[in-house]
Design a protein that fits this description.
two-stranded parallel sheet; about 45% helix; alpha/beta; 11 strands; about 325 residues; nine-stranded parallel beta sheet
Length: about 325
């Protein structure tokens, strides 16, 4: 392991992806079991996500799932990547994280995003339009105010007030600018567009204002990493998610993950094939040596303090093996 990787934290984001032939309940139980494995492997954080009305994703209530994960583990930090703040009142989010922090002190992270739903139907069901995310910065400030006890309403957030739950901004688009202005750690995930990612990181660092939450910029780079005994085996791990992504772009819904062998052989239109091929690019995939080289380049390019790995695939044992191999690469083992 290089000194660059030794100085970098590595964490896990799991989206509770449903596999073909499996139930949502099994996907959620797999997430909890995966968290225990990630803890044993020495990863720094384990985060869960928020998606609504998605056939292939079981994780719709991240703070509830985070509680299950924290209860099943002992030391790994647990959080959300993220709670989509426009979907909730900031007071309720503060209360939920206050409860989590009270139950699992010193282990809870609060990752915050601004998505308002994947489709028009989901947005309507959540009571939103596309423009509702424009108030994200104000919502983050209100949320932090509940922890600081500075809300002008006279209402006190219980048990949140006075607790220090680290907030992170998922930096999609202007999220980098919001994180910089509010002095918060930033999570950015766009490995397939390095120029855009590096531009966002540069803007964040240049505009960062120290705050009670962070004295200096803190960058978490998020992306897919697949490690296997051969490059071909690592590539196969990427196939189910790539097919699902291509399908979603042409049908409007992420389906459950199919087996890699079936997905690669399914008929596709020319447009679907182009989307599928594009979805297979820009990730870090290969043997331990190849992935170590790619991670070192990524960390040196971005100056990131942390890498958040988000890999999904049908083959659960292959996924766990990938994380075991990744742990061998990035940790002293």
């Amino acid at each position: 392991m290089t000194s660059t990787l030794a100085a970098t934290r590595f964490s896990v984001l799991d989206r509770s992806r449903i596999r073909e032939g499996h139930t949502a309940a099994r996907a959620l139980r797999d997430t909890v079991a995966f968290a225990r494995e990630a803890e044993a492997l020495g990863f720094h954080r384990f985060w869960v996500s928020e998606h609504h009305g998605v056939p292939g994703v079981a994780g719709s209530a991240p703070t509830v799932l985070a509680a299950a994960v924290a209860g099943a583990t002992r030391s790994i930090r647990v959080g959300t990547g993220g709670v989509m703040l426009p979907n909730h009142r900031p007071l309720v989010v503060a209360e939920q994280f206050g409860v989590l922090e009270s139950l699992f002190p010193g282990r809870i992270d609060m990752g915050l995003g601004r998505s308002v739903g994947f489709t028009d139907g989901v947005r309507r069901a959540l009571g939103h339009g596309k423009d509702d995310a424009e108030d994200f910065a104000a919502q983050v400030e209100e949320l932090l105010g509940w922890f600081a006890g500075t809300s002008p309403t006279g209402v006190r957030a219980r048990p949140s007030e006075g607790l220090a739950v680290p907030p992170f901004v998922l930096a999609m688009g202007e999220g980098a600018d919001i994180a910089a202005r509010l002095g918060l750690p930033m999570v950015i995930g766009d490995l397939r567009d390095r120029d855009r990612m590096l531009s966002g990181i540069d803007r964040y660092r240049a505009a960062f204002r120290p705050s009670p939450w962070a004295a200096e910029p803190y960058v978490v780079v998020s992306g897919t990493v697949a490690v296997a005994a051969t490059p071909e085996a690592a590539h196969r791990l990427l196939v189910p998610e790539a097919w699902s992504a291509a399908y979603s772009r042409t049908h409007g819904a992420f389906p459950p993950l199919p087996p890699a062998e079936e997905a690669a052989d399914r008929p596709m239109t020319a447009r679907q094939r182009g989307l599928y091929d594009a979805a297979l690019t820009g990730h870090l995939a290969g043997t331990e040596e190849q992935v170590a080289e790619g991670l070192e380049r990524l960390v040196k390019e971005t100056g990131a303090q942390e890498v958040l790995v988000t890999t999904s695939t049908y083959d659960r044992e292959g996924l766990l093996d990938s994380y075991r191999r990744l742990a061998d690469v990035v940790h002293e083992r």
